[in-house]
Protein 1
Amino acid sequence: MNHTEQRKRLRAVLAGSKCLSPASVYDPLSARVAETVGYELGMLAGSVASSTTLAAPDLIVLTLTEFADQIRRIMRASRLSLIVDADHGYGNALNVMRTIEELEHAGVSAMSIEDTALPARYGQAEGTDELISTGEMTGKLRAAVAARRDASLVIAGRTAALKVEGTEGAVARAKAYAATGVDAIFIVGLETLEQIEAIYAAVKLPIIVGTAPPSLKREDMAARGARILLQGHQPVAAAVKALHETYAHLYSGGAPADLKSRVASPQEMERLVAGETYRKWQREYLR
């Protein structure tokens, strides 16, 4: 399937003046639901893929194959422009090239490669980040750009330097990453408008923000180059809570009819799974 249309749609967002937030999705059905609300952008984070595919924490135990397979399922059922967090590219610069190849073929519109040293080394303090060298990271990003086949695919260099090296270090890394030919800079650990302003002034590339304090207004970030703002992964947590409450109700002897106002109607489910389309195919092709 050709996904250039979705990629160009995302590029238009990055070239615009507004800051938008994608829907956090995790499977084909959640992507379909997001589309019915009106979302055109989706996000599949590594942490979300790990929790929903393996029921495991975000400790780099999900494989590239598992990640790519889930993306293919989502993109088969969806027209979202899907942004994915490809972690550290699943290894060194050569692994990054393989990651680009697999995820581009799977249908993503954008992917980020990060400079965090992953997986965490033995003895590393919990909750802390360590960064790979700027040289190693720029090698990864140059390899990523070289591996891309569809020029409309967006590649973002992601940095956690704000949390580790401060604003000065983040600016230096962003400049080095921008020089590799990436299309955007993805920053995590943002705390102030001055930080994003300094990075944008240095690179003049669209900024993707991996969550921000509530005190930072979206329009103020947009004026400083932010085009994508992630908002966390509440839909996944909401689905887990709904599942738990529904299972608990039924397990304790509650009547299914009592759940009517809290569940999707049969008609809604039918639309989400394209039931009418499949019945049409049955009528036309089954003999």
Note: The mean pLDDT is 96.
Protein 2
Amino acid sequence: MMLKRQTEGSVICASCGVLVGVNDDTCYNCGRRNPGLWGFGPALRRLGQDLGFVPLVMGATITLYALSLLLSGSRIQGMLSPSTEVLFLLGASGAVPVFQFGRWWTVLTAGWLHAGALHILFNVLWIRQIAPGVAELYGAGRMIIIYTVAGVVGFAVSSTAGMYLPRLPILGGAAFSVGASAPIFGLLGALVYYGRRTGSSHIGQAGLQYALFLGLFGIIFPGVDNWAHAGGFVGGLATSVVLDPLKRERVDHLIMALACLALTLLALITSFVTALPVLMR
């Protein structure tokens, strides 16, 4: 089995890579508590550097996009865009869902939904490109935390701007907003902070260049939620400061990452359950 637990023998410490006993309380080399991750360390390593998060988020977003098209039926719009009603019911964020309907949990779910074929294609490609590198630099647990918090901050900022700021070109907030670009900008913010914190200027410059390129794209093309991008970048940068890439990843980071995924799943279920009465009319 993929997640079979090892109960005896030696394993590689999840932080420093030296051999330790599978049941050791601490690593003799780096001091990490529970270096064998309760015997699941070898199984988790088989999932990859990102602990399987990249294929998880790619598979889940594609599945939710297909579901949104199926539920839209004849209401599918150009470029294979799901209907706004279906996106709203499945967890779109923005001023209308958050402030007018009290669907505050959508700041967690909106990053897993997409508004069109090109929208999801580009975001999935960016996730595949950036997330593994952030996982390598920060550790998979901290990468997941950054991704989640950046999405929450990005959609919270966008929703607030859409509700309380004037409807201005480029700077106007969103009435409805979906897409993984907010957490993607958070990952870019993490790269920028890593470069500044560690002195790896090429990593920081790469993150900043990507962010500027995508930001310019949002300014040029209409319909892009620039507030979500800016909020996601700031959220990712701030979270990276708290997590500090110069310190080793700890077991509690993995626990927090699992909590982030559990809360996101609960929010998605809540969105779907509350949508059922309307969809079954």
Note: DSSP finds eleven helices and two strands in the chain.
Protein 3
Amino acid sequence: MAVLTPIPAPVAAPAQAAAPSASGPACPIQRVAPEGAPGRSGSLWQLGIEAQELTSAIGQLAEQLETDDPEQRALALAELEAALLAEEGNKQALSAKADATCWVIEHLRGQAAYRQQQAKRLSDLARSDAGRADALEESLVFVLTQLQPSATRFSFPNHELSSRKSSAVVIDDEEALDSEWLAVTTTTKPDKAAIKEALKAGRQITGAQLLSRRSWRIH
């Protein structure tokens, strides 16, 4: 099975950031100083290290979202939001943190797509395995019941093959059945397409409203 690569660094650097751990960020998503401020070299080396540290810290916050505890999830999201809001007025720092967040989002979506592919592959393999097992079982039962037609159970050194009797109705021709043997079911659902057109035309419909949403995409 292929192994997923770590979250790539936005800027190439000689060393990769340490892998995230569930215990919390290795470095806080601290306020990034403006370019030219003391402690910031502005070199590609330093920018690369800072980008990796941000991506690593945000990735570790994302790991905390795996919990079923809504309070812990809310705290993790609040920490990220606070880190972004702290850069109000510092466009460069806000951009750096937002870009690092986008890297983590893209990594997680890529990982989700990979796992979906793997799930489909495993599902196909499982279906194939089950099909082969069923075919072998049918063949085995066919041979054994041919040899012992009256048997309802077969015992082997390590296994036992047993049977039980059941009955099921098979409908050969539904059209040929009298109405007394037919069950009538009625289902309804809102006609959203028609409702949408009516609302857009200005009609007021009790129980329905038209909401406008804006969708976002990272590219």
Note: The first strand starts at residue 153 and ends at 155.
Protein 4
Amino acid sequence: MSANNARPRISLLSDEQIEQVHQYALEILSTTGVRIDSVPVRELLIKKLGPNAVDGAQVRFPAEVVEWALGTAPSTIEIFDRLGNPAFRMGDGRMHFGVGVTALYYQDPHTDNLTAFTRANMREMVRLGSRLKHYEVISTVGIVQDVPEKYSDLYGNLEMIANTTKPIVLLVSDEEKFPAVLDMFEHLHGNLGEKPFVIPYFNPLSPLVMNAGTLEKMQLAIERGLPVIFSNYSMAGASTPITPAGILAVLMAELLAGLTISQIMKAGAPILLGMLPVYFDMKQLVNFYDPQSILINLACAEMMEHYNLPHCGTSGSGTGWGADLIAADTYWMNTLTYSLSRGGLAPFVGDTLTSKAISPKTLVYIHEVIDQSLRFASGFQLDDQKAALNEIDKVGSGGSFLTSPSTRQNYKTGYYVSPIFPHFSMEKWQAAAQPSAAQALQEYTVQLMEAAPAPADHDELIRKGEAYIASLPL
């Protein structure tokens, strides 16, 4: 980056506070420990930690082993697209965004009505996310419900791989189907670990439980050479303390435990770490993002920068009743502040109604939010040429810059122009029959969806994938 680039940055933790958080996590891991529900993984940990670290299912992690893992995990991860082309590098200091995740319902862009999520919805949402440039990954968008339940993960992920060439963040709702999904991908694509475009996503159970399914799926993914995301999901006041400091301490301990386990499974295994720190409304019995959730996301990003590890953070997703003011509040706050951090992956954009539904209009609107946030975060060039002193002198007092060289050169890119919302004057808005912003968003979303193309190999992948699923002894 040029030294003359004036770029905004946001900072939360001091060096002393970063060390304080680290010590909190180490104390939890060495004193309280973590429950490891997988017997094979516990046996693997005993070989590294020694038998004294294990008390039944409870495992304590000595500080020196955690420090070893921090020094062993890679600081950057190269991600490819399905065609084998470099897509982006995690840990490069940039922001990356994705759509998803695992919705049960689809919110129709014409009516806002909810219906059970289907294969057709998966196809539409994957193609829509693929068409929008700032979505660099496609996360598992929903749980397909118009096929037999035992085939849901397989058909859903078949639609994923067949309708995009972008990298895929993989979530499998039925953990027993995880190996079958990877096998299907390899049947359709070949070796997944050579140029990885699939990034499996795993959660522990807060507080301080590593469930067997998570650990065994993570081990399988690592053995196949895939980078993995290890991210925890809290409900403050329920599964974690309600104070931000307590949330950060327990979630950071879980992340460092997951990191350490991944490196014991295979030294140098690529892994992204992050948190989804939501709050829990005890009266309404729903989870939600609070402004302090956004602060915790930033704190985690700064901890990962300190550790020199790639970060996977929150997207502000799940809020609102569709593409509305409620969703806009949280998405704007999360996206703008995260864009001012040191970079990471925000893989879950578009879901609404406490993440139970996916909204095409939300996905399209937040792409606009991302576009403007990245423009803000990139700052501006401050040098002699951009200051245009010669032009200012030539135009002089009371003149006009409409025909100046810098105006002619930059008028198309010098300010933000929305593809959704025109810069109407009052008179032009009235002449256009006073459209609402919601109407403009709906029309633009529908146009994008109708014109979103399929990859060239879509039909062949669907044919081969359906034949493969039909052959499985499930």
Note: The chain has a mean pLDDT of 96.
